[in-house]
Amino acid sequence: MHYFTLPPLREELSLHRGPVQAAGEPSYTLEDPVRNQFFRIDWPTFEVLSRWSLGNPDDILLSLQADTPLDLERADVEAVLKFLNDAQLLRPDPLASSAALAARHQAAAGKWHTRLLHHYLFFRLPLVKPDAWLARMTPSFGWAFSRGFFLLTLLALVAGVALVWRQWDVFRSTLSGSFTPGGLLAYAIALTVVKGAHEMGHALSAKRHGCRVPTMGLAFLVLWPMPYTDTNDVWRLDRKDQRQQVALAGVATELIIAAWATLAWSLLPDGTLRDVVFPLATTTWIATLAINASPFMRFDGYFVLSDWLDMPNLHARAFALARWHLRECLFGLGEAPPEYFPARRHAGLILFAWAVWLYRLTVFIGIALLVYHFFIKLLGIFLFCVEMSWFVIRPIAGEFKVWRGLWPRIRASRRGRRSLVLAALALLLFVLPWPTRVQGGALLKPLQVFPVHAPEHAQLAGLPLGEGARVAPGQVLVRFAVPENGSRREVAEAQVERLRWQAGAAGFDAEQRARSAVLREELASAEAQLAAVDEESARYLPRAPFAGTLRDLDPELRPGTWLGRNERVAVLVGDGPLEVTTYLDEDAVRRIARGDRAVFHADGGAGPALRLRVAGIDRDATRILPASLWAAQQGGQVPAREKGGAWYPERAVYRVSFVPDAPADEARAAAAGHAWRGTVVIQGAWEAPGTRFARALATLFWREAGF
User: Residue 22 above 70 pLDDT?
Assistant: First the structure.
């Protein structure tokens, strides 16, 4: 058996009692005051360290067997030695430590580009050493931790919310009007003040429990400054409630500010002071609840949850368990889990890990896009690639690297082979062409439609036809009566007759011959006026321009009813063909062609279902929608904006028209002479799903890469 002497521990280390574990075992906290680091150790490790001065693993094992019920082996002592060596808790050897420490430092620092990347992604800038003045000022803030102040703040919160509810319209209008350069500056100042108070809350709470606060400063996450407070000393506390009080102190401070600011805004009169407290009453709630209280990043909510579950390094342990579970689900390797937990906690940690991954994926992509748009284009593209590579691609590549190391076992596993086959099939489905279906909102209507509108100052004189009546070309549809039209026509006819007589008699009168040119102009003007009267009169006696059926006649209309200008009275639907129209974007239009088959389904299922063929595709994008019913705001499918009564598409859309595949009579019977809104499904060209993804990616790259 190999005998060796254990290296001594560093003299400045100290040991503190930790919280009791879930199984009832005690735990301990090992403090490294030089680096301000703390290590949670279990009972067996504590017993080994208590006998470390014996200097030999065998002597330690004999002492443990004699004094404790623990049954440890030599490998357990060697595991403790490895932990102490990796954590740099052993006293350095003066003969060999220099080279070892230099090598360790070089390995930890990495290459120059790695150091540069780490400093860009995250670094800390200590600004003050507040421990001394915190010790002097903490007693002055004892009232902030009292039960009376808590109840008073709770009362202020209830009163403030109630008063804001009563002034909700004013509050909402103030909020919507604050998104101006000056308002955004006020929000930035308020956020800075609140975050400073947040860190002071941590520092005062830690100092109140006797902990040391060595530094406060700024931490930069992707060059974004955030204040921080070093409260690692709270790990010396063996009471969970005290550690949680320190962790929650920052959030509590922000909520206190928000509660009193909300009440102040409700009570203050309009003016500068009310404008000052408004950002505090709004940004504080959002910044606290959405950021600091979240357990998905290493902010206050994470440390509270970690301490409540009594699981230090919660993220790392949950991630390890989720990665193990993923490998077992995919490959069935039969490996032991990294840690054993009760069934409910086991499942909860796996779900928590996946939630954190999805949350971080969203946040990191958002940060990458923000960095891309914040800097100049060339630098923005580079930093975007750095962000995506480090935060998104790097963890995924690390997991694939582990799979590569397990490849012989994966290939030998039955479940692994099945997962590989399913992955290959999914890849084939992604790259092989499939028949595509293009879907869009559509409108089915007769091609010949003649709406009958009332002219100005019109009175209904008669309804010669009823709902659904057959109409011949030229037949009168509705009769409108306007009393002054008859007198106007009589005056115009008399004037035309008089001017014609004068023009005809001009040859017998020298004076009239001199005025012949003037008479001809007056006659032309009078005839034009008579034609205008006749044209206007025709509007009061509308006739059918084509054969069809009268529809949508208001059953409550009676002769003698006065109608408003352009009020619709009825619609004449012609006997011509039907037309189906839709508007599709560029990607959808690329996958269809004239002659492709389609199906129209009316909304609600109560209308017709017709088989169609693509009849036409506009070559140019539509600049203005023909009617508001196509706009998404009006129930259509085209995102559009309204300006001056016209609707302009937000993106390029193309008009596509269809004709029924059925005989004309059958199609008209199905439509029943009405216009129908519905959905059209087109059988497009065969295309691989990956092609569409690659095209969209190439389009995005081409658009954003332009300088």
Answer: no
Task: Report whether 501 contacts 494 (CB < 8 A).
Answer: no
Do 70 and 99 lie in one domain? The reply is yes
Whether 331 and 406 have beta carbons less than 8 Å apart is answered as yes
Tokens standing for 594? 């004239």
381 and 528 part of one domain: no
Residue 310 CA to its chain's centroid (Å): 33
Let me know whether 684 and 583 are in one domain.
yes
pLDDT at 27 over 60: yes
What are the residues facing 41 on neighbouring strands?
A: 28
Whether the Cβ atoms of residue 100 and residue 94 lie closer than 8 Å to each other: no
Q: CA–CA separation, 94 vs 406, rounded Å?
A: 41
Q: Is residue 117 domain-shared with residue 148, that is, in the same domain?
A: yes
What distances in angstroms separate CA 32 from CA 37, 87, 103, 131, 295, one per listed residue? 5, 10, 21, 18, 27
Cβ atoms of 223 and 123 within 8 Å: the answer is no
For residues 587 and 154, the model is more confident at: 154
Count of structural domains within the chain: 5
Query: How large is the C-alpha radius of gyration of the chain?
Result: 41
Q: Do 148 and 279 fall into the same domain?
A: yes
For residues 251 and 319, state if they share a domain. Answer: no
Give the pLDDT band (50/70/90) at residue 158: very high
The two three-digit tokens of residue 383, written as one number: 């930093």
Specify if 55 maps to a domain: yes
Query: Would you say residue 665 has pLDDT above 50?
Result: yes
Contact between 685 and 591 (Cβ < 8 Å): yes
Residues 445, 675 contacting (CB under 8 angstroms): yes
Region 459-463 average pLDDT? 79
378-394: pLDDT as tens digits: 667 777 777 788 778 88
The DSSP secondary structure of 44-66, one letter per residue, reads: HHHHHHHTGGG-SHHHHHHHHHH
Q: What is the pLDDT of residue 355?
A: 94
Amino acid at 160: G
* Burial class of residue 435 in the structure, from the number of CB atoms within 10 Å of its CB (0-12 exposed, 13-18 middle, 19+ buried): exposed
Domain end among 513, 533, 568: 568
Quick check: 434 pLDDT over 60?
yes
Asked if residue 331 and residue 191 are part of one domain, the reply reads no
Assess contact for 234 and 213: CB atoms under 8 A.
no
pLDDT top residue among 466 and 417: 417
Structure-token pair, residue 566: 């352009």
Residues forming a β-bridge with 598: 612, 682
Would residue 423 count as lying in a domain?
yes
Residue of higher predicted confidence among 280 and 133: 133
Q: By C-alpha distance, which of 486, 175, 133, 598 is closest to 141?
A: 133
For the chain, what is the mean pLDDT?
81
Weakest mean pLDDT among 60-69, 212-221, 496-505, 671-680: 496-505
Residue 556 is classified by DSSP as: T
User: Nearest CA to 547 among 448, 479, 674?
Assistant: 448
Angle (deg, nearest 10), helices 414-431 and 314-331:
90
Residue 442 lies in a domain: no
Whether residue 3 is contained in a domain is answered as no
**Cα–Cα distance measured from residue 229 to residue 425, given in angstroms and rounded to the nearest whole number:** 52
Boundary (domain end) residue, out of 277, 309, 341: 309
Question: Residue 642 sits in a domain of what CATH number?
Answer: 2.40.30
State whether 128 and 97 are in the same domain.
no
Q: Using CB atoms within 10 Å of the CB of residue 405, give its burial: 0 to 12 exposed, 13 to 18 middle, 19+ buried.
A: exposed
Domain of 467, in residue numbers = 449-568
Q: 366-375, 400-409, 447-456, 677-686: which range is least confident on average? A: 366-375
